[in-house]
Each structure stands twice: as structure tokens, then as C-alpha cells.
Design a protein that fits this description.
CATH architecture: 4-Layer Sandwich
Number of strands: 7
Radius of gyration: 20 Å
Structural class: alpha/beta
Largest sheet: 4 strands, parallel
Helix content: 25-40%
Strand order of the largest sheet: 1-2-3-4
Mean pLDDT: 84
CATH topology: Purple Acid Phosphatase, chain A, domain 2
CATH superfamily: Metallo-dependent phosphatases
Order of helices and strands: HEHHEHEHEHEEHE
């Protein structure tokens, strides 16, 4: 009787371990927390900024967004028409209220307040436990895969920007961003996939 009980338990564990592992991921678009958005945050509160999708966010295992602004009190605005910047305290409240786990920084507003602003953005997000993809200390580091372990799954994230800074199209330089390079993209993705169960 005892032997049969253990055999049944071992069989159950083997069956459970053979089941496919899954997790639910919610992917958001641009999240811009500067300019007029700061007034909306003051008016509606951090939780209110997610009204209408709060249940969707709460049910997810991972929540991913494109953070379309630096989070900083340092640096200087670059020479371009639109420069966004989010107050760290407000950004922290909103991102935490939404349960945001991962953000891509590979976009044309990441360096609106220069390299110092980007560096501080990454420091804040890291301190809040938010994983950042698509930016780092140099292009090689920026392009590296970032990994979150959720429900036993290693989920990897990469981010790339194809925005090119030039006189007619001002935007961030690529010193700290992962640049989209079609010649090397396939190899970079293959290398990233080898490290994780799922790549985003």
C-alpha cells in the first residue's frame, strides 16, 4: 500500500513536469509619462492611469511596455522639436500601479535628455525592479537579451531602434541604444533564443 502510494506520487510529479509550461504576457504600446501626461497623473492618480485595462494587467504574469520617455531629473534636452521627460516619483507610482515588469528603451525619445538622462532612467528602473531592454552601456550591451523567470519559464526580451540621427531627423545617437541591423539581426536573435524558453 505504501509502495503504491509513492509510485502514484512519482507518476503524478512526472505527469505534471511533462505538461507544457505557459505564462500570460500583456504587451502595451508607447507609455509616455511626461508633458501633459504628468497633469493627468496628478488629476487621476497612478491607478487611474490604467483605468479600463487594469483587470487585464492584473491577470497577466508579465506586463511589457515601450517607455517613450526618459525618467530623469538630470541632463539637458537635445536639439529636437519634442523632448519628453518624466518625473521619477510620478513614473514610479504609475509603473508600479500598472505592475509593469519590462520596458523597451529602444526608441527615438530615450535620449531626449542626453546620455546622463538615459543613464539615470536605467538606474531608476533597475531600482524599481523593472527590466530594461534595448539600451545599455554601448551598442553591444544594449542589444543583449534580458531575462525574466516566470512560472518556471525563462522569458527573454530584446529591443532595437531603427531611428537614425541626422540633421533632417534629429533623435538619439546610437551610443547607448541597440541599433536594428538587418545584416546581424538573425544571428543576434538566434543567440538570444538559445538562452531562453521564449523570446520577445
Amino acid at each position: 500500500m505504501s509502495v503504491g502510494w509513492w509510485a502514484g506520487l512519482v507518476g503524478l510529479v512526472a505527469t505534471l513536469s511533462a505538461q507544457p509550461r505557459t505564462c500570460t504576457l500583456v504587451a502595451l504600446g508607447d507609455v509616455q509619462l511626461g508633458r501633459g501626461t504628468s497633469r493627468a497623473i496628478a488629476r487621476h492618480g497612478a491607478v487611474g492611469m490604467w483605468a479600463g485595462i487594469d483587470d487585464l494587467l492584473a491577470d497577466a504574469d508579465l506586463r511589457v511596455a515601450n517607455l517613450e520617455c526618459p525618467v530623469t531629473c538630470v541632463g539637458r534636452p537635445v536639439d529636437k522639436k519634442y523632448c519628453f521627460r518624466a518625473d521619477p516619483s510620478r513614473a514610479k507610482a504609475v509603473l508600479r500601479a500598472g505592475g509593469i515588469d519590462v520596458v523597451s528603451l529602444a526608441n527615438n525619445h530615450t535620449q531626449d535628455w542626453g546620455p546622463r538622462g538615459l543613464a539615470e532612467t536605467r538606474r531608476w528602473l533597475n531600482a524599481w525592479g523593472i527590466t530594461t531592454a534595448g539600451a545599455g552601456q554601448g551598442e553591444v550591451a544594449a542589444a543583449g537579451v534580458r531575462v525574466r523567470v516566470v512560472r518556471g519559464l525563462r522569458v527573454g526580451f530584446v529591443g532595437y531602434s531603427e531611428w537614425v540621427m541626422q540633421p533632417a531627423q534629429p533623435g538619439p545617437a546610437h551610443a547607448h541604444l541597440a541599433r536594428l541591423n538587418e545584416a546581424t539581426l538573425a544571428a543576434e536573435i538566434a543567440a538570444a533564443k538559445a538562452r531562453v524558453d521564449c523570446l520577445v
